[in-house]
Amino acid sequence: MSAKTYIEPQTTIPVYDECDVLVVGGGSAGHSAAVAAARAGCKNIILMERYGYCGGDVTGGYVLLIPNLSFHEKTYVRGIQEEWFTRLKKIPGAVAGPDPELAGSQDPLLIKHWAAVGGATFIPPAKICFGFTVDPTQLKIEMDIMLDELKNSIRVMYHSWGCRPIMENNTCKGVIFESKEGRKAILAKVVIDATGDADLCRLSGAPTSSAIDDDCRCSSTALVYRIGGFSMKAFSKWRSEHPDDARTLMAGLGKIHGFRNAMIAGPTDEYGWVNNWQPNRDCSLIADQTATEMGTRLKIRQVLDYYKAACPDVFENAFIYDIAPQLGTRGSHRIVGEHVIGANDWAFPKEHEDCIAWHCTVDTLNDNAPIEIPYRAILPQKVENILAPGRHISADRIAIDNVNLIPQCVGTGQAAGVAAAVIVADGSTTHTVNVSKVQDILAGEQNVPLPRNSHTDPSYMENLVEHEYGLYTEPAKKARANNDAAGTYRHWTLSSGSGAQQNNNGNNMP
Ligand SMILES: Cc1cc2nc3c(=O)[nH]c(=O)nc-3n(C[C@H](O)[C@H](O)[C@H](O)COP(=O)(O)OP(=O)(O)OC[C@H]3O[C@@H](n4cnc5c(N)ncnc54)[C@H](O)[C@@H]3O)c2cc1C
Description:
There is one protein chain. By secondary structure, this protein is of the alpha+beta class. The chain has a domain at about 220-330: Alpha-Beta Plaits (2-Layer Sandwich). It contains 15 helices and 24 strands. The chain has helices at about 30-40, 80-90, 110-115, 135-150, 200, 230-240, 245-255, 285-310, 310-315, 345, 400-405, 405-425, 435-445, 460-465, 475-480, and strands spanning about 15-25, 45-50, 65, 70, 75, 95, 130-135, 155, 160-170, 170-180, 180-195, 210, 220, 225-230, 260-265, 270-275, 320-325, 330, 335, 355-360, 370-375, 385, 500, 510. Strands 1, 2, 8, 9, 10, 11 and 22 form a seven-stranded mixed beta sheet that branches. β15 and β16 (about 270-275) form a beta hairpin. The longest helix has 25 residues, at about 285-310. The radius of gyration is 22 Å and the shape is globular. The two termini are about 35 Å apart. Bound molecules: flavin-adenine dinucleotide (FAD). Flavin-adenine dinucleotide binds near residues 24 and 194.
């Protein structure tokens, strides 16, 4: 980058609109925040999104897999996340996964069925775990429908890029944005930064940190694409019958792209989506974004030819189905909140009185038992009236890879929306909000189970206690013996295994 600078002249800009709650970013976190705020009674919400659709990484980045929503027999991740499944199930080909009621089932036929279609990947070997894959186009439509149902409360602004928070001392009063109409402002009582990269928090004076380090899952970008014209079931069969050839195929594909990539089943048999992990890329840098986009696309035809040559019976008629409209990112800058989640939060496990989401991770340390995510993890330090749910949640470099998956983004987004509605209704602030009230609305009205909340059936906690919080695993025992999970529980690495990332507990990671 050039060292030259230019002084931009000061200018007066129009106020485009005013609202109670402004959500910037319409990904899984931001969309859920807007919907939850409206359902909690807020009538004056704006949802601003830089692209022309909601869903972010999920719909635009083609991240189709929503894993680990249950622990043994109980589904903990409910609320809006479960609603995606319930709504999409009515549409053929839009979603695949076992019904939540099947969680914990040890029926070998059921396990075989769901393992084979890849609907609920990450099924632990001996039991069904509720999880599902979605079709990104159908989810895009459904997310619009959800907003349209709440159109009396939510005004959607697509193609608008939030650039800068309007700060008065340490209090956020709104956001400046850019669009084809030029540079304008929106004034708001509460701003929810759901940009995923802490775009607004970074400019607000709130402390943030970066996840970009060489062996962290969060420092990998992706450009996902889909290959059609073949049967994914036939490919899975081929892989299980020819494990050595399958390994050679993976290695060959890795060489073509120069980074790891793996074909994964979607909700229908007609295509596979090629997930990929491009290490040491910062999705908030122009050069890395460009390299991700162009570098991937330049190789896709070659990859297709390689599949056809390596496995002609399956891929004879295969073709490039489509390429995700936006690059995918697993993380970049994240907030340093009033609580920073660490692996000890689930190794011990910690109770948080301000718990607003009770979510399974994809870690084997605690056998994916749900952990308590506190309100303070979406509450940036040093600034008032900004909340930051989603993949830039406050967590250390080890924990972040486990708490920024789609379910946690939806869950923290939903909680942020309810909190914002309560703040507006009560005239409080993000730091003085009545968190008990937020929890009661989530658990009592929005189908979100929360620990120790009177609206939540005690069987949720009983299930956790009965199964020892999942802490019967060897890594958990080691962590507890060391009195610290960090040494035992290392972060994800890009340098071992084949096809997917693994952590040193041997756990695969999306
Ligand atoms: C390739 C890949 C595979 C993954 N695999 C899985 C998986 O299998 N399962 C899983 O659960 N998770 C997976 N993840 C992680 C998961 O997809 C994301 O962490 C999650 O979807 C992030 O949701 P979010 O709403 O926080 O952020 P995003 O989805 O990034 O949403 C942010 C939204 O804000 C918008 N935006 C950004 N900046 C601005 C701005 N300044 N102004 C206006 N709008 C803005 C963006 O356009 C976007 O719509 C994967 C991620 C990737 C990239």
